[in-house]
Amino acid sequence: MLAPMEDVTDASFRLICKEQGADMTYTEFVSADALIRNIAATTRKLHIAEGERPTAIQIYGREVGPMVEAAAIVEEAAPDILDINFGCPVKKVAGKGAGAGMLRDIPRMLEITRAVVDAVKIPVTVKTRLGWDCNSKIIVDLAERLQDCGIAALTVHGRTRSQMYTGEADWDEIARVKANPRLHIPVIGNGDITTPERLVKAFETGVDGVMVGRASIGAPWIFREMTSYLRTGRVEEISLAEKFALLRRQIRESVERIDEYRGILHIRRHLAASPLFKSIPNFRPTRIRMLQASTLDELNQVLNSIEYDIIPSIQQS
Asked: Of these residues, 17, 88, 134, 149, which one is catalytic?
């Protein structure tokens, strides 16, 4: 599954990842408060292309009323699943009591979950973390309590909120959640799934699904590699030309969706993270030019130089 990521999992990226082998996609998280105020940038996140389904729309908030109202709006957008974010660790979300901040107010988390489940007819799922910090890893008990609220599945990121994205994800703890005989809903694991080999190892914990996040940024073909390895034991070879074509498509569709300047700004995160450029020696000046390009012509000139001049010269040497 493609994990929900703010400023990453827009409609174009989700569709590309789906075409590359992701079985399911999640939208960027949607603020309940912004949604009920009809903020245009937020309502745009509700658009789902038929080709990317099944897709979940993820919402977050800290109050029951707005979350229920937002859930009703989301249901009208006709996603396959409504997911509640109780896992975002960033200060502007968790610090205000939403996202992973709910791990410090379990009664309210359960109240919101129960109310949202009761408010809509589509399946409701939850994504959360192990606990607030290393002294409060409550996920095994919390999973049962969320199940009692009526959720259809649970995604567990194998870190606490205090860890943010540092350290290693604790897949042993995720396995404990799945092994609980009182838990009957599907469990999806998330955290540090960066290679096809790690994907297979994650499934060995018994989880029903695996969510891939940061490793897909600038590399949507990772789902194709993972799917081939999972099914055949071999990683499908994907040519440099295909990978560059996917990045160019992301750039083009980002510009078409927004406009040239902001579309390029949006895609810079993918370009900065892409493994395509990781092993190129003395790449810093070219990287700076790539990430400072403000027009399609400028950006394409840099990418052409990398694809047709720099990389071939490295391969020949």
From this structure: 88
